[in-house]
Amino acid sequence: MAKKSAQAAPATEPNGTVEPKPVAATDKKGKATPKRPNQSKARPPVNPPLSNKEKREAVKKSGPLTKEQKRQAKEDVRAERARIAEGQWKGDPLFDKYHLARDRGPERLLVRDIVDSRWSIGQYYMFGAFAILIFSTSGSVQLQSYLFIALLVLTAVIVVESICLTRRVKRLVFARFPRTEQRKGGLYWYAIQRSIMPRSMRNPRARMSYKAKEDDLGKVVK
To answer: Which keywords label this protein (predicted)?
Structure first.
């Protein structure tokens, strides 16, 4: 019996012709030829921002502004500032970006409303300390001793109010925002700092009255 050939015989067509063997891509290089990636060209933006040079050229082409245009531009700026101030006062989240970093977030808004909705002696601390400082310059030793006692009493009252305030902040803020990333110490200090400021000097300005209910605190005013 004849031995089988180690190599397979080439395939033949029905008409008797031999089909040529296809050449593999790895016959010459020893490895497959990599395909080229489809690289898409970066398209420019539809409305690219103008450079400083282009802005100056646009201003030159438009010509100097008239008095009416200048007056209208000032009115537009004033109206925009009023709109931003009103949005901040209402607690609108869209205007939260105009606040300082320490005043941003719904938790800070709720803390401000908690402080502004309660009357406290701490908001008169600056006036009391300033008055004590002025009267302490008098030569009367007895008056200075009385003022020192008054300052100690005022400080003790503020400490007690701060403790009550932090407890209320903890109860309301962490009940409404259980997964907040705000630290307790930061919220407590933020509330205490605002409570010892006069109500008219607080920034952002107070938006809650002393008769405000707990359900209204921290909500956006429509």
So the answer is: Membrane, Transmembrane, Transmembrane helix
